[in-house]
């Protein structure tokens, strides 16, 4: 018998039963809900059903939370937050709400609180739930109908995805990190390149990443179309988790640690698909278009539709038109109007440190907003003095929430404005109608702030610890 | 939700790649209650110009697209955000079928939960349909075909999704039949992996 992959082991541990048609009923260990879950609670209420397992359900206010001042921008937004609070009170699940010191973006708060653990099945009505796979959880986003099903039954019907291993071998160069690795593979395989697959990230460059870096890498799995992304647990994982509020302790920790260690992919496990990247070849990356697959090394030139054909040419032309870019010009030197550092992709403490390392002692040439991923990240950043580096550089230090990632509460990029952003989606209108988003790492956004243009961060790092 | 096996309707083409769910419905509309109807939000920022007037060049705004219930598009349709509101917008605007070479996984599942068919066709077939639209098509879930535009086109669909669309199954009802098995599973997991339950912290 061949061995099992990490994904197989976690899948099997959650299999309640298999249906003849090929669907499997899976047990859900953690269910995160947020303001957007109101449709699902509405469905539950319409049937008069109770929340089946309140102790495994956790709410976080993030998408609609104001990050500048305490007042939501509109009544509709205030109502979204209030509805979540009402649902939490009525269904008796824990909520990290507006008044909670642990409030933050669900994909930051969940891991931070030790709610996300290796070997767990984690779902949330949000596509970036793939983030939690960094801790070796099988974690994926679901829609409102499925959220209602999980609320009512603590289970979900799923068809087993195919397994894909993405090995990133070797070591990344200075100024290159998890965001660059992720955008690199998405550019190579396409925004639907991993559709139908559960990715296991492996290889020396992945092992070398901190948990924060792994969270960034797994966060972007969905941008390549994957069902989920996972990293096998190792000493880095265990060190990071130990002592977190909701993580096991005492004898439970010991038995958990033993179980987790056994989750790693067996040496003779087989994958449906295997891809290998050389980390040494990865340069800092920026996107130029309106899909995360439209990504290139910062040293590259803007694609020319004349060199593509058919639908691809049309798409490049439309993207350049929307983005206000000229084919064939270098990416470096493209002026930006503003910057944003935040989101579930890149607003953890290491992300803020990486941006601060570039900004320290320098002035931003364009305005920008820095929104930490959670209130605890905010506190820690302030304890380290990072907030003062940002404000001294001329950037605004805001509260924790989804903020400009989703264009909420007036945290938007104005029509036609160009934003260097640490977020995960450069879709048309994502950061506001007509907004032009370039995705990149926190260090690269800091470099764009300092120069007012898309810039290679590497020369700016010389003589600095990043 | 009612099941269906055959749908006849007007097909309209949206010849674009990567129509993500942020385009299908921008986030700022998602606080509306469903009862308000989401059809007017569909593809809002593509259909309307900056002043909020309909862009008359946009395929869905053309008079010949009125009443369309089948949408044809290019690859990677419905990628991005898991927002089911994207499907509500399509369904409330009268769509029953979207045919494209590839779909976002979560979007596909959301479609099926709302009686909408995400029919996967090859790139060449999508181009053929785009060239023919607007036209009347017949989509058959039993035979897995799209008819009405030259030779019948076979579409790909997960067999689990096919059954669900045909039967109009509601998963919560189906799962209720397994309540005992689920409770037994939970008890066993609690015993074997007590660490999987959150430690009662503050
Ligand atoms: S930060 Fe952005 S991507 Fe992440 S959960 Fe919030 S809206 Fe979604």
Question: Secondary-structure map with pairings?
Answer:
The complex is a heterodimer of chains A (466) and B (202).
Chain A: H1 6-13, E1 15-18, E2 24-27, E3 30-33, H2 38-47, E4 57-60, H3 75-91, E5 94-96, H4 106-112, E6 121-124, E7 138-141, H5 144-153, E8 155-158, E9 162-169, H6 178-189, E10 197-202, H7 204-207, H8 211-219, E11 228-231, H9 235-241, H10 250-261, E12 273-278, E13 285-287, E14 295-297, H11 310-323, E15 338-341, H12 349-359, E16 368-370, H13 375-383, H14 386-393, E17 396-397, E18 418-421, E19 436-439, H15 442-451
Parallel strand pairs in A: 3-4, 3-6, 4-5, 6-7, 9-10, 9-12, 10-11, 15-16, 15-18, 16-17, 18-19
Antiparallel strand pairs in A: 1-2, 2-8, 13-14
Chain B: E1 6-14, H1 21-24, H2 44-47, E2 70-73, H3 85-92, E3 97-100, H4 105-113, E4 117-120, H5 123-132, E5 135-140, E6 145-147, E7 153-154, H6 159-167, H7 171-176, H8 179-192
Parallel strand pairs in B: 1-2, 2-3, 3-4
Antiparallel strand pairs in B: 1-5, 5-6, 6-7
The structure holds iron/sulfur cluster.
Iron/sulfur cluster binds at residues 62-63, 105, 107, 126, 128, 343-344, 402, 405-406, 424 of chain A.
């Amino acid at each position: 018998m061949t061995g099992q992959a990490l994904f197989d082991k976690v899948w099997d541990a959650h299999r309640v039963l298999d249906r003849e048609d090929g669907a499997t009923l899976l047990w859900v260990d953690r269910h995160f809900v947020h303001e957007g879950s109101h449709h699902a609670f509405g469905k539950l209420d319409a049937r008069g059903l109770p929340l089946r397992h309140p102790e495994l359900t956790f709410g976080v206010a993030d998408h609609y939370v104001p990050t500048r001042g305490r007042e939501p921008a509109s009544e509709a937004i205030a109502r979204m937050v209030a509805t979540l609070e009402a649902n939490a009170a009525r269904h008796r699940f824990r909520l990290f709400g507006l008044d909670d010191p642990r409030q933050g973006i669900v994909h930051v708060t969940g891991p931070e609180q030790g709610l996300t653990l290796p070997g767990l099945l984690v779902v949330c009505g949000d596509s970036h739930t793939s983030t939690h796979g960094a801790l070796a959880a099988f974690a994926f986003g679901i829609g409102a109908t499925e959220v209602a099903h999980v609320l009512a039954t603590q289970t979900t019907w799923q068809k087993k995805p195919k397994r894909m291993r993405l090995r990133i071998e070797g070591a990344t160069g200075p100024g290159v990190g998890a965001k660059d690795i992720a955008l690199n593979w998405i550019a190579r395989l396409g925004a639907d390149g991993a559709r139908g697959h559960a990715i296991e990230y492996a290889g020396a460059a992945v092992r070398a990443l901190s948990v924060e870096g792994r969270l960034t890498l797994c966060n972007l799995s969905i941008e390549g179309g994957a069902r989920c992304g996972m990293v096998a647990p190792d000493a880095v994982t265990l060190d990071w988790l130990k002592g977190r509020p909701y993580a096991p302790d005492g004898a439970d920790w010991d038995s958990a640690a033993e179980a987790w260690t056994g989750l790693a992919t067996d040496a003779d496990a087989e994958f449906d698909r295997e891809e290998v990247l050389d980390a040494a070849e990865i340069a800092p990356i920026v996107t130029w278009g309106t899909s995360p697959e439209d990504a290139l090394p910062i040293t590259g030139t803007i694609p020319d539709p004349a060199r593509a054909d058919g639908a691809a040419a049309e798409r490049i032309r439309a993207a350049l038109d929307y983005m206000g870019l000229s084919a064939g010009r270098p990416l470096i030197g493209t002026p930006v109007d503003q910057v944003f550092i935040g989101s579930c992709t890149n607003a953890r403490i290491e992300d803020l440190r990486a941006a601060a390392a570039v900004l320290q002692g320098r002035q931003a040439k364009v305005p920008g907003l820095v929104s930490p991923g959670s209130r605890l990240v905010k506190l820690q950043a302030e304890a380290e003095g990072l907030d003062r580096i940002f404000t001294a550089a001329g950037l605004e230090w805001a509260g924790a929430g989804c903020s400009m990632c989703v264009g909420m509460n007036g945290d938007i990029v104005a029509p036609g404005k160009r934003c260097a952003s640490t977020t995960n989606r450069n879709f048309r209108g994502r950061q506001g109608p007509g907004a032009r988003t370039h995705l990149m790492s926190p260090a690269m956004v800091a470099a764009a702030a300092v120069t007012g243009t898309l810039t290679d961060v590497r020369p700016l790092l010389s003589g600095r610890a990043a | 939700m009612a099941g269906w096996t055959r749908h006849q309707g007007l097909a309209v083409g949206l010849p674009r790649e990567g129509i993500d769910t942020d385009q299908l419905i921008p986030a700022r509309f998602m606080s509306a209650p469903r009862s308000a109807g989401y059809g007017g939000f569909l593809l809002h920022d593509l259909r309307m110009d900056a002043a909020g007037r309909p862009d008359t060049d946009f395929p869905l705004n053309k008079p010949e697209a009125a009443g369309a219930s089948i949408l044809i598009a290019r690859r990677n349709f419905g990628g991005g955000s898991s927002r089911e509101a994207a499907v509500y917008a399509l369904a409330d605007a009268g769509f029953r079928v979207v045919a494209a070479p590839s779909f976002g996984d979560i979007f596909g599942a959301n479609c099926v939960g709302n009686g909408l068919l995400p029919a996967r066709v090859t790139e060449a077939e999508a181009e053929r349909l785009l060239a023919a639209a607007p036209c009347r098509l017949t989509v058959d879930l039993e035979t897995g075909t799209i008819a009405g535009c030259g030779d019948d086109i076979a579409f790909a669909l997960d067999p689990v999704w096919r059954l669900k669309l045909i039967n109009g199954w509601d998963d919560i009802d189906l799962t209720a039949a397994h309540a005992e098995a689920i409770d037994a599973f939970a008890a066993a997991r609690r015993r074997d992996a007590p660490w999987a339950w959150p430690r009662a912290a503050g």
